[in-house]
Amino acid sequence: MKKIIGLLGLVFMMILYSCVDNSQNKEIHESKQTIIPGTTISNETISIYDIHNAKIGEIERYGILVLTDDSIIYNRIPTGSVDLITEMDYYRYIFATKEIIKLGTVENFSYEAKYDTTVIGNSLYMMVTTGEISEIENRTLHLYKVDLISNTMSVVFSEEGGFPYNTMTAVGDKLFMIRVNPAGGSELEVYNTETNERKIVKKFEFNDKANIGEAIRQITSDEKTVSLLRLKMESGEKSRLYLDVYDHDMNFLRSVDVSTIPSHSTDSPENELRQGVSNFVIANDYIYYANFSITRFLGEIENDSLRSIMDVNPEFEMASESVKSKYSGLFYQSFSKDNDLYLLNYTDGKLRKTTFNADDERYYIVNISRNTNDNLLITMKYSHPDTGEELEPKLYYVNLSELEFS
What we know:
The structure is a single chain. It contains three helices and 34 strands. By secondary structure, the protein is mainly beta. A six-stranded mixed β-sheet has the order 3-2-34-33-32-28, with no helix packed on it. Strands 9, 10, 11, 12 and 13 form a five-stranded antiparallel β-sheet that branches. Strands 18-19-20-21-22 form a five-stranded antiparallel β-sheet, with no helix packed on it.
């Protein structure tokens, strides 16, 4: 049975303790979710508001939203509601005109790695899996391109049996992609979006039977460097996590042992080190790390060691960015009545704080996206902890300058 994008968190929780694709698929298969007969999966109509609580738009969506400089890219179930998702429509909402444009449809849809959606120039790139996500022989990984000029989407390349949770980052006009191999190990592949050339530039070996070797957990980049999170497992299942830094030509610069990242968040740091990583940013030696389990870390690299900037909990998240900010990182406390936001200046390390509330203060922040113009798309919801009473979800489209940080 197919995995659906709404079960994103559950899927990741199933694969946390594995390092390579064979082990991960075994756990997914054994833990496969059964959809109860008679239940339905439905789109959600959500209104968009400005900072003054004035309604400025509305969309019907399913799943997580992606913010570009002038629009929202989002998914929608073609029939509104289904018992099992077999196809997914993609749409674009333009803020200036309130126009809604259909981009295309993915048949035999299974999963999309929205956490790594990346914009280069006038194109948006996303990893989409079709087929049976838990079965290597029956799934296909696709790199999709959304042309933001022609409002069309197309497949750049497809890989039968490809790993659904691959990660990528932009370096100029190139996509640097970490690809896990079904046979074990992983590769760093560079895709030139101008020439369509693809090239493997690094390989990392992992022995699945012995559970020994190296696996790349995430990749990120800034104006000068490319950084890899490299998990190294030795005999006895001893694990270490390293931050390897390269220049844009993949010349090695340095390696920092960051194995202390989970030490304050759990009684089982060894297990946390092995988790898949949902968000990883390096900027001027400031580092944010979030895995698909409970570990979050915000800190700074000093003398090849880590220093925590503030204590954080599993609900501490970073605003998603399809183009990484050069200047600051925006963080928020999700599912919290306080609705705290934090802004970290990448130049001087100054951390400032504010709060953001809807017109009804029961609403809490679920997710925030940020674009290169510092516009924010804030998803807010409310569900009563005892009765389950829900308020209609809201989207707020505001600029960072409209928030008062101190």
